[in-house]
Design goal:
alpha/beta, 6-stranded parallel beta sheet, 6-stranded mixed beta sheet, 11 helices
Length: 351
């Protein structure tokens, strides 16, 4: 989940302004239907970084394309690598083109997205703030990613041979804190005395691949042999460090948001806490067409498939069975996963 700033002005190329004003433009992407909503014929997503990160950006784009396909929508515009300095310009130009739905794919876009949505009356999706709703204009996605991280903690505790596991975050991010806490709680549900090493690259180092490699190497040096690490592009550094580890024991990597299997050449990817946005986007398109968009947000959970744990071939059947049992417990409410939204809450849980 990215909030850091970087500028890539070239991302603006190819976004043409449509003359005639927002009200006119909006009529080109939607049409009234009998239910009082509007038929969505085009969608767009703006991402802070490239969509080949196997994580946040990639999952957002893949989810929108899948949702659009399910509705027969063939016009899907992806504006990637825009950073944060040009957010307002990009979102305004998308609004002026009259897309039926705009995904402002970063929590750092929330303020600008809210302004553009209300100015141009274009249905827009933001992130992380459940109160960001406005009928017809604005809605949000939140996550219960700590649920998937709890399962990752169980997996780590079951797979460790050294009795030491690690967790690394790339930034001071609410989602990362939640997953860090979920992981700690899951691991301790298996072994209350397990040693857990925590580390952070920086305050906003989502795309710091070199930092990811450096910090992962330091955590490996502590004896951790299963490491849950969150990042975006920092994940490439984690993967490199773990793939080339000189430890005397096997070191496993648990990723986040996306599936790194296609680039796991050294077979170190044990699993990943996956985020899937498809159902959320499908829900929003349906809400637009039924005239209810902006009344309710969408929370990614284990129960609705928005959060899941990757079942890799390296996970023994007996371990996966325990993970499935825990999944059922979380979904039914018999297992309560702590929601640690701050660094302080994580520290308190760890102690």
């Amino acid at each position: 989940m990215q909030i850091q700033s970087k500028r890539l002005a070239s991302a603006l190329a190819g976004i043409a302004l449509v003359a005639g004003g927002a009200a006119y433009a909006a009529t080109t992407s939607v049409s009234a239907n009998a239910a009082g909503g509007k038929k969505v014929t085009s969608v767009a997503i703006a991402t802070p970084a490239k969509d080949n990160d196997y994580g946040w950006n990639a999952q957002g784009v893949a989810g929108l394309k899948a949702a659009a396909k399910s509705y027969g929508i063939t016009k899907v515009d992806v504006v990637q690598n825009i950073g944060y300095n040009n957010t307002t310009s990009v979102l305004r130009q998308l609004a002026q083109q009259g897309f039926g739905l705009i995904i402002a794919h970063a929590s750092g876009y929330d303020t600008q997205a809210q302004q553009i949505a209300q100015q141009y009356k274009i249905p827009t999706v933001t992130y992380d703030v459940a109160s960001e709703k406005s009928p017809g204009d604005l809605t949000n996605i939140t996550t219960s990613s700590q649920q998937g991280a709890y399962l990752a903690g169980i997996l780590a505790a079951k797979m460790t041979k050294t009795g030491t596991i690690g967790v690394i975050i790339s930034a001071s991010d609410t989602n990362w804190y939640e997953m860090e806490g979920g992981y700690i709680a899951g691991a301790r549900s298996v072994n209350p005395k397990i040693t857990i090493k925590t580390a952070q690259i920086g305050s906003a180092s989502y795309d710091d691949s070199a930092g990811g490699k450096r910090v992962a190497t330091s955590v490996i040096a502590t004896g951790a042999d299963v490491i849950f690490a969150m990042g975006d592009d920092a994940s490439f550094g984690y993967l490199q460090a773990i793939s080339t580890a000189k430890a005397k024991h096997k070191v496993w990597y648990i990723g986040d948001i996306g599936d790194f299997t296609p680039i796991d050449n050294q077979h170190v990817l044990l699993s990943s806490v996956l985020w899937n946005f498809t159902a959320a986007y499908k829900t929003f398109i349906g809400q637009i067409e039924h005239g209810t968009f902006g009344n309710h947000g969408y929370n990614l959970t284990l129960a609705n498939g928005g959060i899941s744990l990757l079942h890799s071939k390296y996970i023994p059947a007996s371990v996966w069975s325990k993970i499935q049992t825990a999944t059922s417990g979380i979904e039914k409410g018999s297992i309560k996963v702590p929601d640690t939204t701050t660094a302080g809450a994580v520290t308190k849980l760890l102690k």
